[in-house]
Amino acid sequence: MTEQNSTPRVAIVTGAARGIGAATAQRLAADGYAVAVVDLTAEAAQETAEKIVAAGGRALAVGADVSDETQVQAAVERIATELGAPVVLVNNAGVLRDNLLFKMSQSDWDTVMNVHLRGAFLMTRATQKYMVDAGFGRIVNLSSSSAQGNRGQANYSAAKAGLQGFTKTLAIELGKFGITANAVAPGFIATDMTAATAARVGMEFEDFKKAAATQIPVQRVGVPEDIAHTISFLTSEGAGFVSGQVIYVAGGPLD
Description:
CATH superfamily of the largest domain: NAD(P)-binding Rossmann-like Domain
Low-confidence stretches: 1-5
CATH class of the largest domain: Alpha Beta
Number of helices: 8
Order of helices and strands: EEEHEHEHEHEHEHHHE
Distance between the termini: 37 Å
Oligomer: single chain
Mean pLDDT: 96
Largest sheet: 7 strands, parallel
Number of strands: 9
Structural class: alpha/beta
Helix content: 40-55%
Strand content: 15-25%
Number of domains: 2
Strand order of the largest sheet: 5-4-3-6-7-8-9
Radius of gyration: 17 Å
CATH topology of the largest domain: Rossmann fold
């Protein structure tokens, strides 16, 4: 159950306008959470929020740059006021600035670090007090199979590996307050991001997906709902003894 005193618990999902974030926001709403749909602009987040409301859920579209401390603080305070105290946080917001190391600009590096790492830090710091007060909290950070290294993604790989260390530290620090922290590391998921990667390497997206599927034991690429299902479990009451873990959702074991 996600209800406490007949009031739905509140979840925040960042980068929730599309892809994994949108699927996760809709899944958590179906699980009974009131969901704050956060993306760079409220307009971008509105479609996901409307889908949740149309399905009978409760949602709020919120615009915020997660790498900006002032915007994060304002967004979380608004969510707490309009929806209720957030006790679930899914740090999903992310960007790509792929390039080989010798071509990668400082801006490419900083942008990826700021959104993934600083964004997760700022959002978690702003929400943890509500979880501590509630004696219940679930934090899920989106890592990636790229954390193990991926050509052309020195920035992204470093950020996604950093999120794993961040997750484990949160689990250690916050566990005594009834808060768990876990990371989900997707493999190949068919999203706008992977479509952008296909374009970068000069392949049609359908061909790119077919080629990827041949290397995956289950013989298909993932879809956003695959990740949303896993996050649904990690944010549930029943996952209270699972913390500090990195779960690869990649259709098979990774080397």
